[in-house]
Amino acid sequence: MSEKLVQSTGNGLHSSIPKLNVAVIGAGLVGSLAALNFARKGYEVDLYEYRQDIRTAELVQGRSINLALSQRGREALAEVGLEDEILSTAIPMRGRMLHDIKGNTSIVLYDPCTKQCLYSVGRKHLNEVLLNAGYTSKSLKPFQEDAEAKADLIVGCDGAFSAVRQQMIKNYGFNFSQEYIEHGYLELCIPAKNNEFQMPANYLHIWPRDTFMMIALPNQDKSFTVTLSMPFKVFSDIKTPKDLLEFFIKYYVDALPLLGEERLIKDFFKSKPQYLLSIKCNPYHYKSKAVLLGDAAHAMVPYYGQGMNAGMEDCSLLFSIINQTGITLDKALLQFTESRWRDAHAICDLAMYNYVEMRDLTKRVTFKCRKFLDTTLFRFFPTIWVPLYNSVSFTTMPYNKCIANRKWQDKILRNIFYAVLSGALVTGTALYVMNLQNFDR
Amino acid sequence: MSEKLVQSTGNGLHSSIPKLNVAVIGAGLVGSLAALNFARKGYEVDLYEYRQDIRTAELVQGRSINLALSQRGREALAEVGLEDEILSTAIPMRGRMLHDIKGNTSIVLYDPCTKQCLYSVGRKHLNEVLLNAGYTSKSLKPFQEDAEAKADLIVGCDGAFSAVRQQMIKNYGFNFSQEYIEHGYLELCIPAKNNEFQMPANYLHIWPRDTFMMIALPNQDKSFTVTLSMPFKVFSDIKTPKDLLEFFIKYYVDALPLLGEERLIKDFFKSKPQYLLSIKCNPYHYKSKAVLLGDAAHAMVPYYGQGMNAGMEDCSLLFSIINQTGITLDKALLQFTESRWRDAHAICDLAMYNYVEMRDLTKRVTFKCRKFLDTTLFRFFPTIWVPLYNSVSFTTMPYNKCIANRKWQDKILRNIFYAVLSGALVTGTALYVMNLQNFDR
């Protein structure tokens, strides 16, 4: 890494970070977006990728092939002028369609008031659009373990098992945790039938089953990508096609004919369930030399649909800081860490929590009551009472603030509950006493 | 690593783990103890160390030069027949001697009932005794990054920054966290004077100062090793000898003449404060091929004096499992992980908590009351009411059980408190009413 000093030119009009050589490691969604941002600002950018160029590659097993794009990702795309292009082919999902164990469905809209929704986008398509905006296949550099390269700034966008982070972890004061969950996931497919979707397309489909669940997101080609999440133990107990079909008849009876028995058996047994992990660290930067973005900084379990969105928001935040007048790169990176780590830790925790909500709570009456209360209050006070899911998915409110908001709402609802209860008690007692007096007369 | 299979001979009489080649990485306290255990059981053991042999080395800056040996370490030493040799030169510490800001001292015995105590031992001496029991300087193998070696089992005793763990961290399902605290430490020295200790020798001396503290342990040569623990910010605010002396006059007035101004200034400014971190992971093993012991598995902040003791206890546990009849090595290592990780995580947390207790709570009245209650109950029910500190330091009760015990004791004391309060209230009311009646007459 070059030891070239980064100094403020302090002209007070423009960012005083001189145009440096930037090496972006990883040409995934966050890496290609970060590279595009740096390039648009006039930096010399080298984008490195150790996999094959996604534009010429077959789909890689084990990386979900569609994703839920929400507000944070949309704004980051808008900043590089790509939001419209992406949304034009994305499939809006207006709410959750819940499938119960008998195959009955019910709908919970994400936002009945302002009609905001998630967008199902293909990972490959999105990545291609981002790469095409700045890179030909030729300009993408291969990233190899023993290769040497020089850069003023290394931007680690190399995912949950980041090689850049692997170097930073040795630094004193670098806090880090990786936590695997005891559940794995496996992707299946509900194909199109007669060139039509086999289920309503504009929903995120969920089959909540307490300790495990299945979800499905619509694809452009009218298929659904289905993700089966459950404890590794449950996966390994399914040893034969017969076990598998019995399992699906018991738990996912309505999905079985859509998946198709033959295809299901093939898909299920051709690959092993994938691990899921949560990664937190702090700081995200090393002096003015390196910074981590996206999964490299904060991998999370996929249950809030915020992994990609949070990674793209990293870019928004980083460049809003770098664009400040008079800031030096070392200060900018420090400020990025300081203004980001609490929010990133918060969304990692929320994602972990949402797994419980999705597979279990969505079925419960208390959850539905709360959802109703939240929606009603949101309708009357749309700027004040933004429910947690909506603030996370449909605003760019800092994640930590979303949680603080929720706590404040919990407190109010609790107080209202007690007030109503006390009121009822007082009224009840008063009526009873009056009744007694009437009786006395 | 050799791929030789480890198979049970299943004779049902002896451990069925065949005698393998074992590579113990790290010849520190835990590594040399582990190597000794393996060697005594007839294994082929290679002990690797990347530092110079401690027997021929000068003291290494930044590793504390004396340590508090307690029950768990003692038992592990007894198992290899070395406890008596170590205790014969160790200095018993019967309690904490607290130094207040004015220089007044008070004593809190660890165990006024059964008179158990901690033993201050020199790291170098202890390590030498352990090495001499099995290894000449020649038989110790150098451990180099690029060297190749073969072994059936790798035992990682290579400390908080373990190279063995660095390989295991890449495995799916390996949970890991490293957490630095915002306090650093620096070692100072209170030398002997006229060949005598300058303070009472049989205590662990503590200068609690809320957000920071200083402690001192006695050495064989009648000096004390003093450890100054405080936020890095406070360290860095002390820029000149004048700052330093003012700081000591303000906070450690009684220690200043014992440390000696000139020596203090020299010791303080010659080295930087050291970082402290807590490391947790799970599992500790990889199949039948590798296992982590000591700091490599669970580094902790030094404030419970359990780092070495827990590491030595790892050896006791591992060999008690390996000694089971009919157990295979892969099962033994799995069992080691499963029966150890919760306790190791617990002592890491306790050590973090004890930093607060030592620097702050020891001064408080509530702490002293609790200590008095604990001691009194312990005196009357020595097998039932073992206070937390005593169960951790003077028994081999699993650390997690020690915490569960404490919670149970907290609950009882809380209930007693409420009962006494209610009793007092009832009695008071009764007396008041009787008084009223007397008044009526």
UniProtKB/TrEMBL annotation, chains A, B:
Residues 145-324 form the FAD-binding domain. It catalyses: L-kynurenine + NADPH + O2 + H(+) = 3-hydroxy-L-kynurenine + NADP(+) + H2O. Residues 21-60 form the 3-hydroxyacyl-CoA dehydrogenase NAD binding domain. InterPro entries: 3-OHacyl-CoA_DH_NAD-bd, FAD-bd, FAD/NAD-bd_sf, Kynurenine_monooxygenase. Its cofactor is FAD. The chain crosses the membrane at residues 416-434. This is Kynurenine 3-monooxygenase. GO terms for molecular function: FAD binding; kynurenine 3-monooxygenase activity; NAD+ binding. GO terms for cellular component: mitochondrial outer membrane. Pfam families: 3HCDH_N (PF02737), FAD_binding_3 (PF01494). Catalyzes the hydroxylation of L-kynurenine (L-Kyn) to form 3-hydroxy-L-kynurenine (L-3OHKyn). Required for synthesis of quinolinic acid. Its main location: mitochondrion. The keyword Oxidoreductase applies. It is found in: Mitochondrion; Membrane.
